[in-house]
């Protein structure tokens, strides 16, 4: 349910360093009609009056409009034959429409307005487009889920469908590659024509040569799930990842290579990783070098996702660079690209990659001949996918002051040092003008309920250069429980978080046991203990911050979406730590989730929860009598992952109990909100809800509050029904 040491008695605080490319003298204009002033590093009381005001009541220029409008999502990057960057951006101001953009002096939309690039394969999608060496583009269209073909520079021709029209979007495609040898497109297909709740997943070929539409031909089948079909340079071998119920791809998966016959079929295949009984592993991201060597990421030896190479002649796997760090992410979406092979010869391979280790990201290049890793210094400090350009890299990432961005990185002739780097795309280009209001995250490590086991989080203190608190007051704290739950929060700029901290809230983003980024052992803390470990860690983190003097024990709130919404509801039902909560499309009934969920996650919670007794005892809906504080719920009405009945069921139960509760439902929204107006409304209503129910301050923004059942009377003025 996604869209991550051994100190026992104390917490370590580490501030992230500022980017070497950031300026200490960035000027700020038009903030509350003030004269131009310098950033917070050099603001003084002689230049700007500083007001003493209660936490939570501070006025901030980071408005909900700015947050919702800046939430462009990056759905992947590629380069065309000329080396120009092509990226997929999701635009909240266009109801979340996915648009392919050709970057340059003047970025140009490739996707016509009547199309939207997005696949619903496995509900979470990803891998929705691919560009050939000849600049042919194949993409998945959101409305009908068919594949379309167009040339990226020919605006005169409308995209042409290359898969049949089945009358409804029951068949979806993702993560495809071009096969120049047979002029076809090889892709993962999810076919729900017979059963939408249990679609058949295969790897198929789509003919690119004919003018007539043909039924795609199945190349690989028989398992429950497939991902990453990848062809070698000669189009003679196909690598892919597959896995089966009850496993998720990060639990146990297999990497296979199939040999392609003269007729285009796969006549012979060999298991490269995942079939050896000596290892429990989850291989991912296979990639062929230009010399035909197969690289991939797996966690077979040390429990961390490391880069490996297949020795085909002996059918052996060797580690390229053993490290207790994660070189890949869990396979929630298709098409991730965590590394690129930038130089290949008989003597050595140079691999550009990044890894996560104890809450930090590191970008660098691997030399497999020497087993060395050289760090690369660029403006970003938190990294995602990497795309190889012409004599450069395009790195997706962020930092404490940069929102999700793409940096163009040029290396020296030895491919070991950065010559130049620049941000070429940003989800919010104007964000630096608010830098004085940014709260810089502190990486914290805190003890858990289990002796000798610690957990991790990012703590954001209240920050606003125009205000300070009275010395007697501690700030309200909002604890965020991330989704997944097999996922990871990161300490990079998120304007959603800054919306809270710039108004005088403390905010902590918890990577509870079960999060990714810390290896398999940490990830498996949650097996059969979902609703226990995550809840304990979120509560423990809040209590630690209270004991550290960083939060007000009487004003502790918790919020989360999807699986994080479940942790929120479970924390409110089974613990007595928080005073209010917000659940965004969260799970209230685990049994209902299992019965109504989609195929990809239909067995996921079996491993996370346990037997039927555990399902009952950890479902908040079965223990409404234990809830004792106000809750606000937000739900998309087209959500197929966590259906609207989940929110409606807990809302009705809490309302009947007499607790203050509110439910907000959105037409046209699925699992995660994409429309700017709904992102804005959700943020504002959480803020004003908490302000009203935990007390102590009034928000500075002009927000009409949603009616709270069992709290507002019919005579209350300006209440939105």
UniProtKB/TrEMBL annotation:
Entries under InterPro entries matching the protein: AB_hydrolase_fold (IPR029058), Peptidase_S9_cat (IPR001375), Xaa-Pro_dipeptidyl-ppase/CocE (IPR050585)
One family name in Pfam for this protein: Peptidase_S9
Signal peptide bounds: none
Residue ranges of every copy of the Peptidase S9 prolyl oligopeptidase catalytic domain listed in the record: 493-695
Molecular function (Gene Ontology), one example: serine-type peptidase activity
One of the GO BP terms on file: proteolysis
Protein name per its UniProtKB record: Peptidase S9 prolyl oligopeptidase catalytic domain-containing protein
């Amino acid at each position: 349910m996604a869209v991550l040491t051994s100190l026992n008695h104390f917490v370590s605080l580490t501030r992230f360093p500022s980017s070497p490319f950031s300026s200490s003298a960035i000027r700020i204009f038009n903030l509350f009609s003030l004269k131009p002033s310098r950033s917070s590093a050099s603001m003084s009381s002689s230049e700007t009056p500083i007001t003493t005001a209660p936490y939570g009541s501070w006025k901030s220029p980071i408005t909900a409009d700015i947050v919702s409008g800046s939430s462009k999502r990056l759905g992947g990057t590629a380069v065309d034959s000329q080396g120009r960057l092509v990226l997929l951006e999701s635009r909240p101001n266009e109801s979340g429409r996915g648009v392919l953009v050709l970057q340059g002096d003047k970025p140009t939309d490739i996707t016509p307005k009547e199309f939207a690039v997005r696949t619903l394969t496995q509900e979470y999608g990803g891998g929705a487009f691919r560009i050939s060496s000849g600049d042919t583009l194949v993409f998945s269209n959101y409305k009908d889920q068919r594949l379309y073909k167009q040339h990226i520079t020919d605006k005169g021709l409308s995209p042409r469908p290359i898969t049949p029209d089945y009358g409804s979007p029951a068949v979806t495609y993702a993560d495809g590659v071009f096969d120049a040898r047979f002029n076809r497109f090889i892709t993962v297909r999810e076919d729900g024509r017979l059963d939408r709740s249990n679609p058949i997943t295969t790897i198929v070929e789509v003919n690119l040569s004919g003018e007539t539409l043909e039924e795609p031909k199945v190349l690989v089948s028989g398992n429950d799930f497939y991902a990453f079909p990848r062809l070698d340079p000669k189009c003679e071998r196909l690598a892919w990842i597959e896995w089966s119920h009850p496993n998720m791809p990060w639990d146990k998966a297999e990497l296979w290579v199939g040999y392609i016959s003269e007729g285009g079929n796969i006549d012979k295949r060999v298991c490269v990783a995942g079939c050896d009984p000596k290892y429990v592993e989850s291989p991912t991201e296979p990639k062929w070098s230009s010399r035909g060597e197969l690289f991939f990421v797996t966690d077979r030896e040390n429990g961390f996702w490391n880069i490996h190479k297949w020795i085909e002649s002996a059918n052996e796997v060797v580690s390229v660079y053993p490290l207790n760090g994660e070189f890949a992410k869990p396979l929630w979406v298709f098409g991730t690209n965590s590394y690129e092979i930038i130089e290949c010869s008989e003597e050595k391979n140079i691999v550009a990659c990044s890894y996560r280790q104890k809450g930090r990201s590191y970008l660098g290049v691997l030399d497999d001949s020497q087993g060395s890793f050289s760090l690369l210094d660029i403006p970003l400090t938190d990294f995602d996918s990497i795309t190889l350009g012409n004599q450069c890299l395009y790195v997706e990432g962020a930092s404490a002051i940069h929102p999700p961005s793409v940096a163009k990185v040029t290396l020296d002739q030895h491919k070991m040092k950065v010559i130049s780097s620049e941000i070429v795309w940003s989800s919010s280009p104007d964000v630096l003008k608010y830098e004085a209001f940014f709260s810089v995250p502190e990486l914290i490590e805190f003890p858990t309920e289990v002796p000798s086991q610690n957990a991790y989080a990012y703590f954001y203190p209240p920050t606003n250069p125009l205000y300070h608190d009275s010395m007697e007051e501690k700030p309200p704290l909002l604890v965020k429980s991330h989704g997944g739950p097999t996922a990871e929060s990161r300490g990079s700029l998120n304007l959603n978080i800054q919306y809270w901290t710039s108004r005088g809230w403390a905010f902590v983003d918890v990577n509870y046991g079960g999060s990714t980024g810390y290896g398999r052992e940490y990830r498996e803390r949650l097996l059969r203990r979902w609703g226990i470990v995550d809840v304990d860690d979120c509560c423990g983190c809040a209590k630690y911050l209270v004991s550290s003097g960083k939060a007000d024990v009487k004003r502790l709130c918790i919020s989360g979406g999807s699986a994080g919404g479940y942790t929120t509801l479970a924390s409110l039902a089974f613990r007595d730590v928080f005073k209010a909560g917000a659940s965004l499309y969260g799970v209230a009934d685990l049994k209902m989730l299992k019965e109504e969920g989609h195929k990809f996650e239909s067995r996921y919670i079996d491993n996370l929860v346990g037997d039927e007794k555990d399902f009952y005892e950890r479902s908040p809906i079965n223990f409404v009598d234990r809830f004792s504080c106000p809750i606000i719920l937000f739900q998309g009405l087209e959500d197929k992952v966590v259906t609207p009945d989940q929110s409606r069921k807990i809302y009705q139960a809490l309302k009947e109990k007499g607790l203050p509760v509110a439910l907000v439902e959105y037409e046209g929204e699925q699992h995660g909100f994409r429309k700017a107006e709904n992102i804005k409304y959700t943020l504002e209503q959480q803020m004003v809800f908490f302000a009203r129910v935990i007390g102590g301050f009034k928000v500075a923004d002009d927000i009409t509050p949603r009616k709270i059942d069992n709290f507002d009377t019919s005579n209350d003025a300006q209440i939105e029904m």
